[in-house]
Amino acid sequence: MKSNREKSLSVLNNVMKRCCEEKVPFFELRPKEKTKEASMYGDYDFFTEKKNLLKVFQFFLENSISSGISFNLTREKPEKWKIFFPCEEKDKGIVLEIWNNIEVSSASKKNKLLRSTLKTKNIDRYISYSKKEPFLDPNIGALIYLTHLFYKEKDFKKGEVQKRIKWFIKTLTLNQGNADKKLGEETINLLKKASKKNIKEVNREALRLLNKISIKKESFVLIICRRIWGKTINIFLFSIGGKMMYILGPDGSGKSFLVKKIVNHSKFKQKKVFVSRFKNFYRRIKLYGLLNYILRKKHKEKRNLVDERLSTFLCFTSLTMLIIFRVIKPFKSLLMDRYFFDYYYKGIRNKKLAVEKTFFAKYFSFLVPIPNHLIVCYCREETRLGRKPGEVESDSAFLLYKTYLQEITRKGIKKSYFIFTEKSDYLYEERVKELINYL
Fold it and tell me: Suppose 19 and one of 26, 85, 166, 172 were both cysteines; which one would form an S-S bond, judging by CB atoms 3.0 to 4.6 Å apart?
């Protein structure tokens, strides 16, 4: 039986192959072996443009479902996401850092004002697609790596740094890449003379060469604005008041079981957390009861199927109730089964309705509060259909998962836990403890 580490590496390799097949530019910035031993130390650095993030995350989720593993998705900075695959060895999971902008600096790392990012809209022309994975032209990769060594103030004595520099020199000597021959020669010379003493000069030269091929630094004003906005969002939405955590997933994905696990845990009982179902927010309203009754009689449908006809009304009602809850109990943490994202489409459960976005999702989704954390539950599709037969078809279930990922990337949700609920093993129990500790 494969270990979680082996499954995680298999997921990564499958995602890279899928990116090749669909020509999605998702590539490694700094080459590293995808073996069990290599994955124990350090992380993997990848790059893709912001417009491709949703597709890449979708590939990871689809492969994680079929492989039966969990992962965490964290937004660490406006330009950086992190995927963490927990493994059997405590605190030694596999870490993938996914950048949608490349950080550079023309001065010391301590001088925050001179930090910048590279414009990457022209980087596509330097990407090739093999059978296994997309890869960046080694000339460009080497120059970006040199700017990274300066930006991060890396120790040149480390074996990992020397190994990567030798790899770039060897690769460029054998094959100059897609860029011109002169650039290849200049890059090799820079790699050979790079050291702790002259890294500032090497970094400046690397930025000049990147600028020469139209990979330039972004506007100073844009960078400052993005950082201020990021900090503001972080302070006002994630730091003030009680914590908000929502558990999502189509019917049969294991939400109720996870909620019971959390609520019945001895550590959770010591905390003051309000636990509720999303539908409890709108079902307390008398007008909802009246409308639901009228539509049930008219269409001869069950209560939860009629709810899809009232989805826009339910979202506005729940939003009002949630705001009232935050005003009355601003420092109370909230754990809720389902969230607004589950109500963005009609026709998910009700087969009589066409599958389409609701009026609320089209025009008012910006009003939805950004959660601190999201938990997305999933299991293999045959298991889910066996748990709740006839509730949500496979196509509708994957539409819901796509909606979750869309909102995570669009709203920049700080941390999302994707939990495989088919087996309650050691790693599942560790996830439960992690969620309780956060609350």
Answer: 26
